[in-house]
Amino acid sequence: MQPIIDHHIDKDSHLMSDKHRSYVSMGKQFSAHSHVNHSKHEYSRGDVHNNTAESFNGNFKRAQIGVFHYISDKYLSRYLHEFEFRWENRVKDKKRTKTGDYKSVMKPIPIIDMLIILIMRLSGIRLRRTKSWGIEDIAFI
Fold first, then answer.
1. What is the pLDDT of residues 97-111, one digit of tens each?
2. What separation in angstroms does the CA of 117 have from each of 42, 82, 100?
3. Contact 141, 124 (CB under 8 A)
4. Is-contact 126 141, C-beta < 8 A?
5. CA distances to 14, 91, 95, 96, 105 from 100, in Å
């Protein structure tokens, strides 16, 4: 896990994790490391939590079970990029619970707005088709 973290996470980040011992040594290389202790039923402490990562992972797992059914290692990065895009482009909303309290929920943005964002991001990028109609690497023009 260390090479992946070294490649993708900025050392100036504040790492938040659970108290698994593998994260303790990794946390020393970041500007800050806070953790929660699930074994003591601690799931958040002020701003410290790992709920965001668990929520992203849970959404991805549910999509794999309910929509995609099988994700090969070859295309895993493409599926993760799609979910990253959906995650970054969601709308925060409030929903009333049965007890009358409000809780925050995330809703996907309307599909037309998603397409507009996607088109704006693809400006200056060209996709090429292979002879078998697959997609080659993205080339900047």
1. 888 888 777 778 888
2. 38, 13, 35
3. yes
4. yes
5. 35, 22, 9, 6, 15
